[in-house]
Structures are given as structure tokens and as C-alpha cells.
Amino acid sequence: MLRALIEADDKKVYDDFCWGRDLIDLVIDHPAHFQNAGEFISVLKKLQPRLYSIASSPRAHPGEVHLCVGIVRYETFGRKRGGICSTFLADRVAEDVRPRVFVHSNSAFRLPENGDTDVIMVGPGTGIAPFRAFLEDRKATAAKGRNWLFFGNPHSATDFLYQEELSSFQANGALSRLDLAWSRDQKEKIYVQNLMVQNGAELWEWLKNGAAFYVCGDASRMAKDVDQALLKVAEEHGELSPDAAAAFISQLKKEKRYLRDVY
Ligand SMILES: Cc1cc2nc3c(=O)[nH]c(=O)nc-3n(C[C@H](O)[C@H](O)[C@H](O)COP(=O)(O)OP(=O)(O)OC[C@H]3O[C@@H](n4cnc5c(N)ncnc54)[C@H](O)[C@@H]3O)c2cc1C
Questions:
Q1: What are the residues whose beta carbons fall under 8 Å from the beta carbon of 108, sequence distance 6 or more?
Q2: Is the Cα dihedral 199, 202, 204, 206 positive or negative?
Q3: What is the mean pLDDT of the chain?
Q4: How far apart are CA 136 and CA 169, in angstroms?
């Protein structure tokens, strides 16, 4: 079976096989002969670092870096599994252990230099991380531009990240608009991109007014759906043809007013 998989040389077939399996599954299903544990370890690839968006502004928390980590847990092939790094942080790291970290800076995903510029942020799930930092920073610098956040997750009762902080940002005016998409709280699934389309007239008005548009989170579905929603808003509310709407979005990107950090 393994030989057929390799000979097929088909990435999709290969990815489908790997999904939900780890090395132990492979070794159990296809026992291989190693002289000793050392020889087994020597054929393994080094653990790769995991990246996490910084979820705090140094102006609000000097000397600290906050992260917002979603813990990966799932069950496949009759065994409970956990993501290596997220469960390390959640379950195994001891108080006195200092995990090794490094900063990988992304100069392409920054707040506008001019604090008067409005900011639209789309960050469902852990995609909210940089936007919590943005909001803290905009408040700390008393930026005058408006801030609009689209956030979403399956359930409001259990998955409302930074709920209290967002309420207080709303109360003190740092967050001008908050739109929430709870995909599993009702029969019909609602996602951030649906709320963008529902609020398309206002979204278009913000964009025409010079707002910067940010997206963070899932690259596989969400970022593409948000891109489509943006096109729809430009077509419907900007009364643009599909080609002109696409050109408008390209122009936003050129002006660095449409920025994404998706994974
Ligand atoms: C630029 C960037 C920024 C990021 N920012 C954040 C952030 O702010 N917060 C955050 O939480 N993450 C963030 N991530 C993702 C993060 O780096 C890790 O990928 C994530 O935490 C999972 O790592 P892990 O070691 O826990 O899981 P891993 O051990 O890497 O396991 C993940 C793998 O498990 C498998 N898997 C997962 N779910 C299932 C399932 N249901 N069924 C079958 N198989 C499954 C898949 O093969 C998946 O690739 C970011 C990634 C990038 C690239």
C-alpha cells in the first residue's frame, strides 16, 4: 500500500493519506527494522518551530508579549491526539521552564502610520490575536481613526475570545464597530464574510473613505471567502463591474491598504 502511494506521485492522494496520521501510525501499520532507538530518531526530521501572532501592544504591556493559542486536539484512527506545540503550551510546560522563542517580524502587517486612518479588521478564531494588539495600540496612541472588528467562532458562550476587553474597547470608544459571527449557534451557519456582505454599504463607505483592511487567520477557507465578500461589496455598493471590482481590490493591495496574515 505504501509503495502504491509513493508510486502514484499524487499530492492529493498523499495529503489525504497523511491527514490525521502521525509517525507512530506509520510505524505501527508498517513495522520497520531499526537497530536501536537512536537509529530511529536519526531518520526523523527536526521539529519545526511554530509561529504565533503577538496579541499585545508593547505600549499597553511593556516588557510582555501575549499570545492567543488555539489548542489543537482531535481523534483519528481510534486515538486521541494533540498538536505538538499548542498542547505543550497548554498541558506540559512547567512554571519554571522557559520555552525557547524567537521573534519573526512581519513588516508587511502593520497599523497605518497615520492614526487618523480608519481600520477594518477581520479576524475569526485565533486570527483575532494581532487585532487585540492593534486595538491596544490604537488606544494607547489615542489614534483618531475608527476601528471595526469582525470576529467569529463556533459558539458565543464558549468561544468569545477577549469578550470583556472588547466590551471595554467599545465602551471607551476604541472599538467603533464589532460584528460577531457565531457559526454554530443557529441552524444556518454564519461566518465573518456573511456579515461583511450584510454590512456592505457601510463597509464600502469606510473603504471609499480610505480605510485599511486587514485579515488574519485561516488561509484554507476563510481568507478566500473574505476576498470574495470584498469583491461582492465592491460590485454591489460601488456599482462596479466584476473586472472593475477586481481592479479596485488590486489597487487596495498596491496601496498596502489590504493586508493579510493568514496561515
Ligand atoms: C504566521 C503564522 C501565525 C500564526 N498565528 C497563530 C496564532 O496567533 N494562534 C494560533 O493558535 N496559531 C497560530 N498559527 C498556527 C501555529 O503556528 C500552529 O500551526 C498551531 O498552533 C498548531 O501547532 P501544533 O504544534 O499545536 O500542532 P501540530 O502538531 O503542528 O499539528 C497540526 C496538524 O495536526 C493535524 N490535524 C489538526 N486537526 C486535525 C483534525 N481535526 N483531524 C485530523 N488531523 C488534524 C493536521 O495535520 C495539522 O497540520 C500561526 C501560524 C502562522 C504561520
A1: 256, 259
A2: negative
A3: 96
A4: 9
The enclosing H or E element of 208 equals: helix 200-208
For the domain spanning 119-262, the CATH number is 3.40.50.80
> For residue 84, how far is its CA from the centre of ligand 1 (angstroms)?
9
Name the burial class of residue 241, with classes exposed (0-12), middle (13-18) and buried (19+) by CB atoms within 10 angstroms of its CB.
Answer: exposed
Pocket test residue of 14, 15, 25, 51 for ligand 1, highest count of atoms within 8 A of CB: 51
Phi and psi for 232 in degrees, rounded to 5?
-60, -45
What average pLDDT does range 145-157 have in this prediction? 98
148 bridge partner residues: 120, 177
Sort strands 73-76 and 79-82 into parallel, antiparallel or unpaired: antiparallel
Range list for CATH 3.40.50.80 in the chain: 119-262
What is the distance, to the nearest Å, from the Cα of residue 78 to the centroid of all Cα atoms in its chain?
Answer: 29
Q: For residue 240, is pLDDT > 80?
A: yes
134 pLDDT band, cuts 50/70/90, is very high
Supply the Cα-derived Rg of the chain in whole angstroms: 22
Mean pLDDT value of segment 98-104: 95
Grid cell in block for residue 189: 451557519
- Cα separation, 115 vs 170, in Å, equals 18
pLDDT tens digits for range 162-179 = 999 999 999 999 999 999
Residues with CB under 6 A from ligand 1: 19-20, 50-53, 68-70, 72, 74, 76, 83-86, 126, 129, 261, 263
